[in-house]
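for the recovery benchmark. tokens below, seq after
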């Protein structure tokens, strides 16, 4: 069992920055992939970025590459999403998810199916 708690959402101006956090608790993390997804009401969750806990391998969606950075702090079992140069299209509810993987490349773990654990979400609103 893994419990995830997001924080850090809020209102940010276009072009500004925000950092989201996802605190994880539970059992062994070494075989976990953790990821950020975002969702607009009425639409499917969209992959943002993922990180493999064991070796810090990361992967990000094209829409956020060069602007968002995923990272983690092993000491605090916390994952982060540093969001820079945000725009209107980044307005969404952001969720962190976690799943165990068995050797799949991280690029294959970009859909919400298979992610077993989810946080409650944190709202990010970009004002222009």
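predicted aa per position
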């Amino acid at each position: 069992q893994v419990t995830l708690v997001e924080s850090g959402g809020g209102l940010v101006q276009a072009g500004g920055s925000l950092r989201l956090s996802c605190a994880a608790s539970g059992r062994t993390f070494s075989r976990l992939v953790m990821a950020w997804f975002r969702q607009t009401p009425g639409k499917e969750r969209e992959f943002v970025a993922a990180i493999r806990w064991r070796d810090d391998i990361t992967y990000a969606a094209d829409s956020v590459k060069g602007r968002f950075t995923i990272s983690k702090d092993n000491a605090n079992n916390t994952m982060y999403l540093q969001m820079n140069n945000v725009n209107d299209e980044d307005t969404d509810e952001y969720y962190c998810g976690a799943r165990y993987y068995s050797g799949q490349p991280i690029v294959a773990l970009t859909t919400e199916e298979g992610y077993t654990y989810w946080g409650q979400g944190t709202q990010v609103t970009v004002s222009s």
